[in-house]
Amino acid sequence: MSEIDLIRNLTADLAQDNSVVIGPGDDCALVDVNGTSVLLKTDAIVEGVHFTADTPPKKIGRKAIARPLSDIAAMGGRPSHAVVTVGLPEDFDETRLETIYRGASEMGEKNGTYIVGGETTRNPVLLISVSLIGHVETDRVLTRKGSRDGDAVFVTGELGGSIAGKHLDFDPRLAEAHWLAEQFEIHAMIDLSDGLADALQQVTVASRVGARVDADALPLHPQTVQWFQSIGVDPLTEALIRGDDYELLFTAPPSFRGRLSHVKKQVGNIAITPIGVITKEQTVVLRRNGTDVPIPNGFEHFSKPQPRR
How many CB atoms lie within 10 A of CB 216? Predict the structure, then answer.
């Protein structure tokens, strides 16, 4: 069973009330609390999957907070508070754990988010789970659903950078996403935590459309290209399926292309690259060397063996 199938089965019969604006299936849930739109997000990182035993502890904490912050960004929201659950092996290092917390606290404070509680428990390996709340204007919330035939598809930053350690040093695109939501007609947005291929599938399925992506347009991280070429592996395929990018993919009317220079100046001059177009045919294809081929499957949490990032 795939991760998507599992989530669909687990959430199919969940009870909900009128306060639920957006339930399971997007980057965050959105609920109405006494007239205030509140974003809810939880995320976990596990030793041996998302980091290794020799990863600098401060970077572990940084990543634990930054991942759900990226999901808040994808909804156009502003984060505020977090609670942290830590699962610890019997031989855990207290100093290492304290340094992890410092990294998490510093990343949170940098982005207006404060750790206000949590829980500790035993676990065979180190596990850190973060629950985050944020806020968003209901009429400006961004979702995976809403792409239209003819929309242009864009990504921020570079793709495939996790091989060069980007997954431990990235900054969530909070300010950029919020500004885009305020200034433009953004039809759909998602963060690239599980890779570009997965994000494209999520957006097109939610919107009941398809997409055609131009292989030559993809902004590949230069170290990714060098590394995979050196071992005889296609860097383009790796950039498509490799997770831990934490950039944003969004769709907007084609006219947005003409405003890219202005947009880049306003959002810190980050790269915003048009990579394709939304189509009415409900398939996702990659145009490469003049031929359309199916996009490969993205990262799957329950595939074996688990990737060590």
Answer: 9
